[in-house]
Amino acid sequence: MAIKTRSYCVDGKRVMTIDEFKRWLKKFDEDKDGKISRDELADAVRASGGWFARRKSKYGIRSVDDNGNGLVDDNEIKNLADFAEKHLNVRILHL
């Protein structure tokens, strides 16, 4: 099932709310543990058309993982949304 986002900006960035971003990420959570691993984030980067998915996912996890467990959980999702806006061609609407 495809997850629809609101639209694309003039600059080509995918626009979505934080809830849409969470739902989009959830489809990459292969082990269904509610957390995003580096490999799962790499899959998300690839799906969004990003280059250097492994490098970006490694950097992304390192940048947003506050508790140091190597995973992005619900408490760190805001940090990942900020990272996605800067590095993954996504714009998050904070409604």
TrEMBL record:
Highest taxon of source: Eukaryota
InterPro entries noted in UniProt: EF-hand-dom_pair (IPR011992), EF_Hand_1_Ca_BS (IPR018247), EF_hand_dom (IPR002048)
Stretches assigned to the EF-hand domain: 16-51
Signal peptide (residue range): none
Pfam families: EF-hand_1
Alphabetic keyword roster: Calcium
UniProt-recorded name of the protein: EF-hand domain-containing protein
Lineage, opening ranks: Eukaryota, Viridiplantae, Streptophyta, Embryophyta, Tracheophyta
